[in-house]
């Protein structure tokens, strides 16, 4: 196993702790994957393993058809969806799937989250869109994720009656998108419980998005 | 005390930590039991003991009439209900009872949770049903649990004005059902606060349920 | 300082951790006191000290007029209310005050929590009542607490626009009442968000209350 | 680096843990700053650094124009707003910014939080007001914060479609205001979900505010 794969397994293993910390997952219902740079491979959580028991060694390696290449355990039952995204979107280096409560509630109604918070404009550049209903087991979920996100600024999609898929340039960025998706899903839900949130002008959304993508954070990658 | 019983006490003691971790219980209001394989016995939490103080030794052993067979402390005040389930449902190896917030709120209205999430179709195979109002102290709660669950895919029942009982092939599976029951009770509640969730077609529910029960997770039991 | 007072300070100090664990308090807004058995004294949290910094030694001793008898720090600004309860209700051995979210929300509307959960019948024997609006600084809060609770089964009262006071035979029982008050305040709130909870017949409430007060838990005091 | 600055960096670093503990922040979205006493300088969180990685050494020092004076990392992207507050309000020694859920929900609707809790009267002396919509990147946010707070008892302002800015005599007081702002935003939200909270008479609000600002806590500063 190459050093790159070993380190990526460690990173992806540790990133699952963020799903737990931010209450995005119950039991084993959520997974993170990361593309192996320069290879047609990605690493992903094994199926049905609890977050407490997850170790870097238990993270499995798959090819872009979702077939197991290395690892003792069966890959996540969502592996086909992750694989489809990596095949279709070469700039994506990380994918996350959760059933986080507030985002999944918007998904159960099939309703996009409107962009009424500056933090949403920053991270998502507009609304968080809804993808189609799709059954697990083939490429339908992956196709729905890609069809929704490829023409969208948002790195997260609410899959109807299901949950969230988020993408990023690496696994950490995809986890950040999943965390921020639930955060704004909750805040906009709470806002709407007692009335209508005020809209943000499109020009202001564009300006916030542009600035955040290009100025925020430290110059060196974190 | 046999090795089997000792190990089961450890397992059941530790599983109570999951009730705490997932915020399913306040103070001492929730309990886990597990059937001793091949014997007419089960182990269960003692009554009124806080989760911090729970040790494998404090877990008590009862027969299927709910009578104390081994242990220093009085068994849970819900012991009669657990015992009734073990007597009536031979395939059940674990029972959990909680007053978890969102599930109990559906129970207070006497309303079943509709199956509008793929995760619900996976774990519950349809709606989570409501059982009758029943007083503690005799077999009424146990009868209500069994009458509701014996003709149902769902491993969890919302007992009216009371809380949740869940079952499983072992104690861990029953705890998982209790955790997932609260998770979907919360998500569907949140979804319905701002409108009507979209339905999932019965054929899709059947397909998801079948797949999850037969394909998900690792081949070896976890 | 007597051994009894030293142990009571330890107990009351540690019980504040339960307020934190169950999310009943923000910053320093909540306090526990306990009567010194057989003496006209009680111990209580010092004012404005964070829960992390609380030590048994920092817990102060007051007489039943709320005057500081022993301790380096000023007593809680709610000391007069605690003292009034101890003077008026000789069977009370512990008092707790919090601004816990859901209970305080009922209090802000001046609305009693209806008894629609068996766990409420067990612990509170009926609804959780509302006490009057009262300003801090004299005996008004204490009078309102006592006037409301002295003719009531409930060990907790929702003080209008303010928060919760709970009582018990000792400090631990009062903390349990505060924890259960917030738990049922939340569950009944959530239930009512989507419709009307079903009522429980008065005879069933009476039966549940009687059983819980006399049968639940272990025979020896815990 | 002076001892004063070193200690302030430690204090401000540690205060970020309170933002995490009280769930006021997701990922890196929230920051604390503190004025260096007697100098035209303040210390603030670096941009895009996670709370786990924050160390006293990573906290940066800026002048009152928001320019970096000392430190390896880029200052928070909210630095201009903090700097504007320090320039305009000489009595302010600490500033906090968060997107805490319930406060941001009120901000998304552009609605002030009415003073219907005695704890709000204590800490805020009345309603928590709304400030204007303002884009990040210049002095607009700072101007909006100052224009709203300079004629107000409240140490916190809900910036429209954005989040909370709070101020205090030092960084700890500003963090307390941010914590209490979210706490009352949540409680009043929950109260209003099921009806209208009862008002508190202005004279009572005045009396509570006066007492809390002058009597609460220990005589020595904490």
Description:
Chains A, B, C, D: Residues 10-189 form the Class II aldolase/adducin N-terminal domain. Chains A, B, C, D: This is L-ribulose-5-phosphate 4-epimerase. Chains A, B, C, D: Keywords: Metal-binding, Zinc. Chains A, B, C, D: Its EC number is 5.1.3.4. Chains A, B, C, D: It holds the Pfam family Aldolase_II. 4 copies of one chain form a homotetramer. Chain A has 222 residues and is an alpha+beta fold. In chain A, 41% of the residues lie in helices and 15% in strands. An 8-stranded mixed sheet of chain A has the order 4-3-2-1-5-8-7-6, with helices on both faces. In chain A, helix 3 (101-109) crosses helix 6 (171-193), helix 4 (118-124) packs antiparallel against helix 6 and helix 4 crosses helix 7 (202-215). Chains in contact: A-B, A-D, B-C, C-D. Chains B and C meet through helix 3 and helix 6 of B and helix 6 and helix 7 of C.
What layout of secondary structure does this protein have?
The structure is a homotetramer of 222-residue chains.
Chain A: H1 3-21, E1 30-35, E2 41-44, E3 60-63, E4 68-70, H2 79-88, E5 94-98, H3 101-109, H4 118-124, E6 130-131, H5 140-149, E7 156-159, E8 163-168, H6 171-193, H7 202-215
Parallel strand pairs in A: 6-7
Antiparallel strand pairs in A: 1-2, 1-5, 2-3, 3-4, 5-8, 7-8
Looking at the chains present, what oligomeric state does this protein adopt?
Answer: homotetramer
The greatest inter-chain interface is formed by: B-C, 32 and 32 residues
Beta-strand fraction estimate of chain A = 15-25%
The rounded distance between the terminal residues' Cα atoms of chain A is: 25 Å
Residue share in helices of chain A? 40-55%
Compressed to H and E, one letter per element, the order of chain A equals: HEEEEHEHHEHEEHH
Low-confidence stretches of chain A: none
Please work out how many helical segments of chain A DSSP would assign.
7
> What is the general shape of chain A?
globular
- Looking across the biggest beta sheet of chain A, what order are the strands in? 4-3-2-1-5-8-7-6
- Please give the number of β-strands of chain A: 8
Largest sheet of chain A: 8 strands, mixed
Structural class estimated from helices and strands of chain A = alpha+beta
Enzyme class (chains A, B, C, D): isomerase
Domain Class II aldolase/adducin N-terminal (chains A, B, C, D): 10-189
Protein name (chains A, B, C, D): L-ribulose-5-phosphate 4-epimerase
Keywords (chains A, B, C, D): Metal-binding, Zinc
